[in-house]
Amino acid sequence: MTPELWVAFQALALLLAMGAATWLASLPLRDVSIVDSIWPLLLAAAGALYALRLAPLPPGLRALVVLALLAAWALRLCLYITVRNAGHGEDRRYQAIRRRNDPGFAIKSLYLVFALQAVLAWVLSFVLLAALRSAARWTWLDAAGALLAAFGLAWESVGDWQLARFKRDPARRGQVMDRGLWRYSRHPNYFGESCFWWGLWLLALAAGGAWSVVSPLLITFMLLNVSGVTLLESDLRERSAGYRDYIARTNAFLPWRPR
Q1: Rounded to two decimals, what is the model's pTM?
Q2: Is 218 in contact with 147 (CB distance < 8 Å)?
Q3: Residues 106, 27: contact at Cβ < 8 Å?
Q4: pLDDT 10s digits, 173-186
């Protein structure tokens, strides 16, 4: 077994352990949606392990940039989700999963939610492994990747901030958010998230890690078809006639001029 493969399996064990600890914390709370706050920490933990075990010493510019982007992404997303969810109980998406899997969801959630999230985070972390293990020199492709990742982080940060400010305004209650970045895309935060991981993949590609394309493909597929656009809009479309109008005039993912 190569050193890289051995460290990758160590990362999987670490993420599964973190998932199990979060599952234990969810039991007295009856709230499995706390896994969303842990999600960015799973990626940060995997990246830290890869850096400690595989990155060249002293770390090169690529490793420093990847770790800085990862730290900024993880800290922002963890704080944003934790603050957003505080005091609101279990997210309605997880409530639906709970209803479908009762009785016994308390035990089932260990593998249906927490272990699954850990495995998905592990696959997503492959792009970090590929980028951090190499001592290849910095190239224009690295610069392009860093710029794309930074753009994605900024785009989703602005989108989340605009949505949070909109929701805090009592005069906007019941209205559809179609201002700012949300005027050009129904999910600018998901678009920014996808850009972030494709940017990291360009850094991995520059390091010879083309194989890690599975990571941005996975997150983009999830955002479009699993936990993102499809799941969220199936609920919003039923609850709001205004949202159906919003769908008719606004792209779901890629920002574009409203129709």
Answers
A1: 0.93
A2: no
A3: yes
A4: 878 888 999 999 99
